[in-house]
Amino acid sequence: MCGVLGVSGVPEAARVAYSGLYALQHRGQESAGIVSVDPDGRAHSHLGMGLVSEVFSDAVLDNLPGDIAIGHTRYSTAGSTVLANAQPRLVNYRNVPLSLSHNGNLTNAAEIKDDLVDQGALFMSSSDSEVLVHLIARSVARDPAQQIRGALEQVEGAYSLVIGIGRTLYAAVDSRGFRPLFLARLGSGLIVASETCAFDLLGATVIRELEPGDFVRITDGQLEELPPLGSRPRSRCVFELVYFSRPDSQIFGHSVDRVRRELGRHLAREHPADDAEVVFSVPDSANAMALGFSEVSGIKLEHGLIRNHYIGRTFIQPSQAHRVAKVRIKFNPVREVIDGKSVAVVDDSLVRGTTSKGLVQMIRAAGARKVHLRLASPPIIGPCHYGIDTPNPEELIATTRSLDDIRAHLGVDSLAYLSLEGMLSAAGGENGYCHACFSNQYPTHIPDNPIQLRQIPPLIPTHA
Ligand code: SF4
Fold it and tell me: Exposure of 127 by Cβ count < 10 A (0-12 exposed, 13-18 middle, 19+ buried)?
């Protein structure tokens, strides 16, 4: 998952992009980057490993002049965690700069890359996004919009993109619309961003969400709709609503906060925890779910776990070793809430179970008499091929153990998942969502070795 951002027609665009990326930090914490374009059409770039606040300083932003900027926050799904894979990608292209920020995963990137390498193409990274740059560069069309369209017609999978060619920005969403992308007005300029929370921070006014297949051109802050990229059944990622997006964002036509409350209400109806005296969330993504659970069940809502916000989201960390170490310092139980009580704990989902097992041990050590774990989404039974870093099936707890095995493994008195129907109903209905990681019903063809790109080391293994 990544955060993408574009700014056009706004003075000091790099500073605007910096603030916007700050609001999109939850979408990727491994690297951040901004490319700015000045009035003479020259590009200026700075990329680095780490958080937005770590990568950029006043001095760095002073060296990114111009009224156009493209930004990116990254966490790796396709490609290793190294600076060579950071975005925006910037190349010289027919004597103008071409920069590209991509959110999503291309399911046929490995096949296309093999073909391009056979034809002599040189790749500088192991990221699937570089494939798009090559396809654009190889186009025989004269118009940049046609070059981009030609490239996008060759790729499969998920992309929400901001592309700069010279002083023009293009924004596009794949025709299934897996990942969100929004347009907003800031003064006489335009902003494109993955989530609306970025606009709130900037004081920008939302124009609209880009629909699946939308393709737009932005020149000096002026918007031009281009013919759409084809029509396919919508596959909005339901996990964006369950876990990934910020609760203060609006995505896919819904308030993330409202959907999460509804998930909690459905969960309480399907799987009440009758003898629980208090209910609390695993903060932060499950906060609204616990609120909805409390509303319907009548069980008192409390803050039973306090989260240290300065560590990073365990799910986002790329290696198992990091994950285990960070769980222990990420949460602390509130003994006064828990001691001697039967507690219902609401979480958004269960992936490997590593975090939950550690949490349950902490809650028991804080004196809980009983622990009822309630999950506001169904069991995760398959990997995501569209940009979220769910692990391989053999690492998913729900594919390797029965429900009772998982309950015993986590050490809880009862365990229940929200049904697929319940989750989709809370998200506004069954139609238009991808739920493949919960159902194994993938909306696209999946190649035999779709994770091949993740395992190819970059040619230039640069560490920041
Ligand atoms: S497989 Fe799961 S995480 Fe991936 S796009 Fe579909 S719903 Fe979202």
Answer: buried
* Residue 98, pLDDT above cutoff 70: yes
CATH code, domain with 402:
3.40.50.2020
Q: What is the Å distance from ligand 1's center to 451 Cα?
A: 15
Amino acid 448: pLDDT: 73
Which atom in ligand 1 lies closest to the alpha carbon of residue 443?
6
Cα atoms in the Cβ-side hemisphere of radius 13 Å centred on 90: 20
Percent of the chain scoring above 90 in pLDDT:
79
176 and 288 fall within a common domain: no
Secondary structure of residue 130 in the 3-state scheme:
helix
Any ligand 1 atom below 6 A from CB of 1: no
Cα 160 to middle of ligand 1, angstroms: 14
Q: Which ligand 1 atom minimizes the distance to the CA of 387?
A: 4
The tens digit of pLDDT for each residue in 350-375 reads 999 988 998 999 999 999 999 999 99
How far CA 428 is from CA of 289, 423, 433, in Å, comes to: 16, 9, 10
In a shared domain, residues 56 and 128: yes
| Residues of the domain holding 420 | 257-435
Instruction: Read off the CATH number of the domain in which 156 is found.
Output: 3.60.20.10
Query: Whose alpha carbon is nearest atom 2 of ligand 1?
Result: 437
Tokens 């902490």, residue? 362
The more confident residue out of 436 and 457 is 436
Query: Is ligand 1 within 6 A of the CB of residue 436?
Result: yes
Catalytic residues: 2
pLDDT tens string 407-427: 999 999 999 999 999 999 999
Residue 386 near ligand 1, beta carbon < 6 Å:
yes
Please indicate whether residue 252, judged by its CB atom, sits closer than 6 Å to ligand 1.
no
Q: Which atom of ligand 1 is nearest to the CA of 382?
A: 1
DSSP annotation of 78 = S
Residue 95 has pLDDT above 50, yes or no: yes
pLDDT of residue 248: 97
C-alpha distances out from residue 427 to 97, 196, 208, 337, 450, Å: 41, 18, 19, 31, 28
Higher-scoring residue by pLDDT: 152, 321: 152
